[in-house]
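worker-03 picked up job from queue 'complexes'. Input manifest follows; two sequence lines, order preserved.
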Amino acid sequence: MGARPIAFDAWLAARVQHVETVLDQLLPEAAVVPQTLHQAMRYAVMGGGKRVRAVLVYAAGEASMPAGTAVSAQEIALDHVAAAVELIHGYSLVHDDLPCMDDDALRRGRPTVHVRFGEAVAMLAGDALQPLAFDLLSQMPVAPALIVQATQILARAAGSLGMAGGQAIDCESVGVALTGEQLQVMHGMKTGAMLEASVVLGGVVAGASSTVRQRLEDYAAAIGLAFQVVDDILDVTSDTATLGKTAGKDAAVDKPTYVSVIGLERSRELLESLRLRAHEALLPLGPASHRLAEIADYIVGRDR
Amino acid sequence: MGARPIAFDAWLAARVQHVETVLDQLLPEAAVVPQTLHQAMRYAVMGGGKRVRAVLVYAAGEASMPAGTAVSAQEIALDHVAAAVELIHGYSLVHDDLPCMDDDALRRGRPTVHVRFGEAVAMLAGDALQPLAFDLLSQMPVAPALIVQATQILARAAGSLGMAGGQAIDCESVGVALTGEQLQVMHGMKTGAMLEASVVLGGVVAGASSTVRQRLEDYAAAIGLAFQVVDDILDVTSDTATLGKTAGKDAAVDKPTYVSVIGLERSRELLESLRLRAHEALLPLGPASHRLAEIADYIVGRDR
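worker-03 finished. Artifact:
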């Protein structure tokens, strides 16, 4: 008889708590020179957040581990990958919030990094978080060939054809009428690329076969898109206090969103079809993928 | 009878020309979406410059290659490393020039990236150049274990204990009286870390033994420091037209430099002792290291 499965909420809370500890251990201490920079890096990354990317890494790792895997080395590797994706995500938020980008003063209910530390330190903190992510991958106790694969996946997800590229298109799109398809390309790069990378990286590091990896990619594409549709819906249906960031911001600057392009009702329908597509992709993976399935429901149902 | 050695100037010009071609091939095309971002990345990286880091990669590779090395794979790997260090250097210049940092409008005799493309695109171009560097390393046709080593070396040189950290200390030092030693720590991180990484990376990828690598590190430490001392001397002795960037800038903002801390005469003495230290470090490596020796003289003697 197997152990009774932990409920999703408890599992999620435990994973989030775990990655906070991992990040705390892997980030340079605030007392190490240059102290202000290290304080800013910690402030940027340790300020809470949903940790969706880290949680996806762990869930994908669980879904992919072949029987007989050396669990302890695998666990360390997954910790490093989970931290790495959170570092990249954290850096992107710091830079996005800067005055020359979104000019946001509030993030996760706290002053943004540049408000707290000044613009120069905020930019440098973001700049330094990025190589730290690759440093963490290089330290994983897995086969070097897997580290190289992981490095490439992370680099591409973060780069000009991934997150940074999506951000660039987003910047250029203020006041521009985008089609639903153009919107999908932009979000697929800006948010989807790193969410997908989180899933695939968890699988790769855990030793996923190419078949499993393909299913993970299908799953990831669906939830990556779903994540952004939810964001756009929340921007018009939620309030600043609940979100922990400024609500109604996209509409205020005339930024195209799913809601502005296809409307609230069709956005909700799209969301449900993406949720179903994510579940379908996981069917061949069996019970080991149940956390990924639960995360899909969680992403679709979240209120912040 | 060996081939007659090519004179240093001709070798240098050929290597610089070569890395320009390599960068042109490895950067995303300007016509690829997002076009503006890719144009800005190319503008940032392809705008000339001395290519000291790339040239160090090639010279260190030449000094380290064991007899019988498969030259073609090695050459591709050195090209990728040379491009990677130039991408990291290029991104750092783009971010350093931004208004929230040095606020410089001129670089290599041309408008800086944010003047030409706007601040948001400039920041994102820098952000996207960084992962591209790691992507290029991941594609090298050498043993995965060497790629992992290279990734770690580059990540640390670029990070908070290297270049980005030195930049942070520099920002905090405007108007602050630094000791000669503090100045050395700051420059060792800000400029030295990436110059040293360039030398060591060239060695690692070419299969340097640990003994050779140690000599390369000693050499690199000396020229890394020499490079900054020359920069500080040129800032007070040269003019804007020759430098291709604003001369007298450090003195104008009361930024500590070698010249302001130890004076022009002692700065020149320090420079000569560093040049000799670099030559000494290379002695055990024999004739294969002659380009590195010539580069030391070149760095010390440069006028821009």
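worker-03 released lock.
The longest helix of chain A spans residues 210-237.
The two ends of chain A are 38 Å apart (CA to CA).
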